[in-house]
Amino acid sequence: MLTSKMNLASISKKVFIGPPRIDMLTLFVLLVFWGTNVNAQISSHDTLFLSFNLTQTNSHVHTPGNNTEPQKEDGLFLTEILQRTNISGDWWGARNTFNESGIDVELIYKGEMFSNLSGGLKKATTTLDNIDLIFLADLEKGFGLGNTNLKIQFLGNSGGVPCDFVGAGQGISNIETIPTWKLYQALLEKKFFGERLSIATGLYDLNSEFDCRETSSIFINPSHGIGPEIAQSGLNGPSIFPTTSAALRMKYEFGNGNYFQTAILDGVPGDPENPYNTHIIFNKEDGLLLTAEAGYVINKDEQLLTKIAFGMWTYTSKFGKNNFSDNNENSISLEKNYGFYLSAEKLLVSNFENPNKNISGFLRIGYANKNINPVDFYLGGGFKFTGLLGWQEDNALGIAFALAHNSLAFRNSSSILNAIDIKSYELNFEATYLLPLTPWLMLQPDIQYIVNPSYCSQSANAFVVGSRMQLVF
Question: Which among 65, 302, 310, 350 has most CB atoms closer than 10 A?
């Protein structure tokens, strides 16, 4: 942790966006039986409100002799719904009008249920869900600003936290967090030099472009997104889910597909003492997080064949290192916090007659300063088998492992200062299957076996089963 305490009242500037508490399961039911519209607005109190206007449409009155035509219309209507890219359709032409003006609206719902069947802290079941409300604007179409885009994203979460009854340091689900609504991203991007150079600024999710892989994106465990040695660094983590910070990102893409990108971010996203809502705090003691990544990429016919990326990161503020004597007396010294990672993915097997059937693999290794960070070493990898069932080309099976080593300094500090015994390593095995039933409805059963859950002393291993449902509105 940082050695000096922030005085927010005297040296910081805070922007607060506070939402209401919304029951996500109720919201899901409302969205499934969608009628006419969803309205979102920001009030004078900077609070996000959602209002629903539900109406009944496309109803038929049943009378003798009118069976044939209504059944035919209902059948065509059902077929049309199943073939839509999103369940709400084109909004009676309004969606197409927005798209022609450069505006796109996305609403994605994820709902999960996970059960710990054995091991861990206790046997239990919980549900959790996530809503992403995203507004994308091409400002060239709407305002004549060439090569300029705007992204605004609201994030809503509710439900339980599966790792609370597993004791897993790496977590179980990549949407598990506290229940709240947030302004998650507000990013303005401008492209130059034939769109090779892009500069973006605003609230920014670092993991949207850094330390990300197409092959590993299928998995639900958080470690297959951004590595835990980065995710658990800093006073309040880096600028990733569920809390982002102000940032400036620059990226240059070469003609052959290779790229170099760098970002400067606020060193402490949000408010560590208040995880609810959106807080934008500018405090000189927070320092900055500096990141850079270079990537070697080979594509063919818009299909990724090979990607190798190397990234580095460091905080400008120094962090406290605990130095314990033989009698457990503690003295604190200051050190820089830094780390690096190497990531690779490759298309291993491809069906030339049907490129949607293939096998790809990925591997990632990461390191962070062992004197400061909870996780000092990480190794992960796996395989993705796409289109193997034949009847549904977009189905995918994923098998992966994630090994996180907890640093000795972190384990000693937790034991002496907090009387918590943390295991030296945690190993997660995950098998998941992504099944798109329609373009807007996906089901994903998931199995995870956790060897040595980091925060669980009474049991060695845990076995967790769960499922995710995703709806695109």
Answer: 350
